[in-house]
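Table S2 (text version). Query chain:
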Amino acid sequence: MTFQSSIGLRSYLSSLIAFFLILYSGSVLLNTDHYIQAERPLDAEEESRGNEDLFLNTDQYIQAERPLAAEEESRGNEDLFLNTDRYIQAERPLAAEEESRGNEECNFFSGRWVYDNATRPLYSGLGCSFMHDEVACEKYGRSDLKFQHWRWQPHGCDIPSRFNAVRLLEKLRGKRMVFVGDSLNRNQWVSMTCMVESSLPAEQKSITFNGSLMSFKVKEFNVSIDFYWSPLLVESNCDDPVIHRVSDRIMRANAIEKHGKHWKDADVLVFNSYLWWKKPNMKMKVLYGSFEDNDTNSNLEEVEMSHGFELALGTWSKWLQMQVDTNKTKMFFVSLSPTHVWGGNWGAADNQNCYGETEPITKQGYIGEGSDYGMMRRVETVVDELRYKGVNVQILNITQLAEYRKDGHPTIYRRQWSPLSDEQLANPHTYADCTHWCLPGVPDVWNEILYAYIVSK
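Corresponding structure-token output:
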């Protein structure tokens, strides 16, 4: 018996079967898409959603897994600098923070003097164990002490950090720093010893004298901060640290080793040489030979002071190239320290000088007539040539900031090395020292800038 369904029933069953087949196929497709999402890499999933979802989802994923620096990198440079700056400030010492910003961002040498009765002076002039009488103004009767309370403020930035003696000594541990030059460089060295020694107990500090070499030593850190008297840099008849006032100045043009052997092992060298090339109406005699020669006069050539200066710089430059380990030694050259001898330059009477001055000059860009910027350019040229040859010397351009400080000199408030005449006593202007600087005072700022270069590099 053969069973035959009606046409209506067969049509109904076919439709029902087709419906279930369609339903099953859709389910398979949905499940397959889910399966692929579960197996493929995350970036493929995000790529299928488009770039916008890619950045949103990978950012969310990576934040949970990666270090902070990578998280910031994905957010772009702006967030990177903001977040890493916060992170590093919390973890690193101040000097490292400043180093990351770069000294090039701040011109230390362009600015103004700000009266600061809170953080200045940096030490007591009467309390400094190693103060020299030629710059001990308070000791020798100067009563207007406002000159001690001025702080140098660069335009639009700050000198990176306040001077910290212990931090400097840590940086110099086991090392030697030597100031080489004339009495103005000694002025800066005395400032540095006072800035450092004020933080040390008596048993940790000492000072020794050995001819042209003066050494300030810190026992715990095995640090030596020295001064070496060499006013012309090269060998000369002015090399005696006590008796050096001579009527004729004689230099040995190519002779520097006699001096250099005393500071060739230094880790930090701070040079200067301007003042002794500036005596009015004097020429330099250049000796081609030895001071021990019997017939010295026959080997002399008389030249302008500027030419002698160039000869000395050339010899100094060659010595640095041959004798200094540039991987070890940091070198600095301090620019011209201005005098305030002609009161007419800043509006006082023409016959007046720095005596009696108690305020800085406020005119921006003031330059006194005694400052020879041509000499400074000669140094810059030599330093540029050295840099090209791989020898880096940083110029500490203290000239402009010191130009403003007509109030900062010892004038009559210092030890007088010879008796004063009645005429001098009647007119203090005639023997006022308008060349050197009272301490505490202007050279402390020179050392703050020097400190910034040493500790942040």
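Notes on Table S2: Confidence is low (pLDDT under 50) at residues 1-103. Residues 175 and 223 are 5 Å apart (CA to CA).
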